[in-house]
From TrEMBL:
<dbReference type="InterPro" id="IPR006264">
    <property type="entry name" value="EPSP_synthase"/>
</dbReference>
<feature type="binding site">
    <location>
        <position position="391"/>
    </location>
    <ligand>
        <name>phosphoenolpyruvate</name>
    </ligand>
</feature>
<feature type="binding site">
    <location>
        <position position="170"/>
    </location>
    <ligand>
        <name>3-phosphoshikimate</name>
    </ligand>
</feature>
<comment type="pathway">
    <text>Metabolic intermediate biosynthesis; chorismate biosynthesis; chorismate from D-erythrose 4-phosphate and phosphoenolpyruvate: step 6/7.</text>
</comment>
<feature type="binding site">
    <location>
        <position position="343"/>
    </location>
    <ligand>
        <name>3-phosphoshikimate</name>
    </ligand>
</feature>
<feature type="binding site">
    <location>
        <position position="170"/>
    </location>
    <ligand>
        <name>phosphoenolpyruvate</name>
    </ligand>
</feature>
<dbReference type="InterPro" id="IPR036968">
    <property type="entry name" value="Enolpyruvate_Tfrase_sf"/>
</dbReference>
<feature type="binding site">
    <location>
        <position position="23"/>
    </location>
    <ligand>
        <name>phosphoenolpyruvate</name>
    </ligand>
</feature>
<dbReference type="InterPro" id="IPR001986">
    <property type="entry name" value="Enolpyruvate_Tfrase_dom"/>
</dbReference>
<dbReference type="InterPro" id="IPR013792">
    <property type="entry name" value="RNA3'P_cycl/enolpyr_Trfase_a/b"/>
</dbReference>
<feature type="binding site">
    <location>
        <position position="24"/>
    </location>
    <ligand>
        <name>3-phosphoshikimate</name>
    </ligand>
</feature>
<dbReference type="GO" id="GO:0003866">
    <property type="term" value="F:3-phosphoshikimate 1-carboxyvinyltransferase activity"/>
</dbReference>
<dbReference type="InterPro" id="IPR023193">
    <property type="entry name" value="EPSP_synthase_CS"/>
</dbReference>
<keyword id="KW-0028">Amino-acid biosynthesis</keyword>
<comment type="function">
    <text>Catalyzes the transfer of the enolpyruvyl moiety of phosphoenolpyruvate (PEP) to the 5-hydroxyl of shikimate-3-phosphate (S3P) to produce enolpyruvyl shikimate-3-phosphate and inorganic phosphate.</text>
</comment>
<dbReference type="Pfam" id="PF00275">
    <property type="entry name" value="EPSP_synthase"/>
</dbReference>
<feature type="binding site">
    <location>
        <position position="23"/>
    </location>
    <ligand>
        <name>3-phosphoshikimate</name>
    </ligand>
</feature>
Length: 430
């Protein structure tokens, strides 16, 4: 396990950065490129481990994929261009890969097996398997069809209406990837709208999908056409730099070309409420996705309460929000976030235990946490662990900005799952 020391105490964060491409969009761009007809060019592809897992699975499925740094060329010949893989498909640490591929492969006429790392084999897969079975899918998993590895006997499916009990873009996207190959109209209703990158990408590839509030429906089968996808910067990666600037006195940071899709900007909405000085400039669009430049200045934050429909809009940013709340005046309450328990780690537990080790004041609850902020009072610092979770690792690295004795992070290699250039980029602005 790699160990790194982060000594950022009082080191102000200044200058301009671009963060790597959006992880959700990068996964989807390779998958859609492979099932479309013709050439797709992806610019700004995220070269984190998770997206490279998707890329290599698609190659094993017969897709022609060439990568040169952050540029990926995909030659697709439609769904029928995919072939039975000769070996198991390994998604590594990536929940998005395994779940989206389950949807795609359940409607292909061949056998496939999806495996991943220890974390993937603990995370629930029945949320995808159960609705796909309603469509006639044949999927088999460990622990009574709950866990990976998952074996799939691809078959012809039937269109359904599915009322999802959770707001999950992975559930929605898996079903859309099955539905787009299936005769008839499939409708998916969510309790709250989850990130809508799949819906936007279907349109970018010339497909049709109806969307209204937290519902979407499409008529299959559809033929998609290759296109150019320019991937915006990932707001979930930008979040760590936003936090570093906000909590370090004297900071002023510009982050250029960040995706600001409203289903992803919950952190910006909540931070505005907490009194953060963040401006969103030069709004524009890249292939149906809103993009902007952000300017962040050090701010004295106040506490807030976050729950309900806001949670899916900032689900991956809750670890870094918890760190920000340790520096805010008052008690911040995060609730309705039980989904955090089934991410790469149980993030309610890892955030609470690791930040408390650094001197924070956080209480774990059934579906979130309560964070008592002590503005002006630095964290102490010490030795903490990522437990193989990239977002926990980066959040703890940023905690070094307010930890007097610095932060020693074990398991720092996890960071490369979504942000391989994180440490280098952080050095350029401090
Ligand atoms: O669809 C996606 O790209 C993602 C959806 C979210 O997961 P859920 O669908 O489980 O909420 C998110 O946490 C994950 O990082 C990426
Ligand atoms: C939860 C995450 O990803 P995934 O579900 O794709 O593993 C994440 O990136 O925080």
């Amino acid at each position: 396990m790699a160990e790194m020391i982060f000594k950022g105490y009082k080191k102000k964060v200044v200058g301009a950065v671009r963060v790597p491409g959006d992880k959700s969009i990068s996964h989807r761009a390779v998958i859609f490129g492979a099932i479309a007809h013709g050439e797709t060019k992806i610019e700004g592809f995220l070269t984190g481990d998770d997206c490279l897992s998707t890329l290599s699975c698609m190659r094993q499925l017969g897709a022609e994929v060439e990568r040169d740094g952050e540029t990926v060329m995909v030659k697709g010949s439609g769904f029928n261009g995919l072939k039975e893989p000769e070996n198991v498909l390994d998604v590594g640490n990536s929940g998005t890969s395994i779940r989206l591929l389950m949807g795609l492969l359940s409607a292909r006429p061949f056998h496939s097996v999806l495996v991943g790392d220890a974390s993937i084999h603990r995370r629930p897969m029945d949320r995808i398997m159960a609705p796909l079975e309603k469509m006639g899918g044949q999927l088999f998993g460990r622990a009574n069809n709950r866990l990976a590895p998952v074996a799939i006997n691809g078959t012809k499916l039937e269109a359904v209406t599915y009322n999802s009990p959770i707001a999950s873009a992975q559930v929605k996207s898996a079903l859309l990837l099955a539905a787009i190959q299936t005769e008839g109209q499939t409708t998916i209703n969510e309790p709250y709208l989850s990130r809508d990158h799949t819906e936007r990408m279907i349109r970018a590839f010339g497909g049709e999908i109806k969307t209204s509030k937290a519902s979407c429906s499409l008529n299959g089968p559809q033929k998609l056409t290759g296109t150019t996808i320019k991937v915006p910067g990932d707001i979930s990666s930008a979040a760590f730099f936003i936090a570093a600037a906000l909590i370090t006195p004297g900071s002023e940071l510009k982050i250029e070309s960040v995706g600001v899709n409203p289903t992803r900007t919950g952190l910006l909405d909540v931070l505005k409420d907490m009194g953060a000085d963040i401006s969103v400039n030069n709004p524009r669009e890249l292939n149906n996705e809103p993009v902007a430049d952000l300017v962040i200045r050090h701010s004295q934050l106040k506490s807030t309460t976050v729950g309900g429909e806001m949670i899916p809009k900032l689900i991956d940013e809750i670890p870094i929000l918890a760190l920000l709340a340790t520096q805010a005046e008052g008690e911040t309450v995060i609730r309705d976030a039980a989904e955090l328990k089934v991410k790469e780690t149980n993030r309610i537990q890892t955030v609470t235990t690791q930040l408390n080790k650094l001197g924070a004041d956080i209480r774990e609850t059934e579906d979130g946490m309560i964070i008592t902020g002590h503005p002006g009072q630095p964290l102490t610092g010490g030795k903490v662990e990522s437990f193989g979770d990239h977002r926990i690792g980066m959040m703890l690295a940023i905690a070094g900005q307010v930890a007097k004795q610095g932060v020693t992070l074990e398991g720092s290699e996890a960071i490369s799952v979504s942000f391989p250039s994180f440490v280098k980029l952080l050095e350029t602005v401090r």
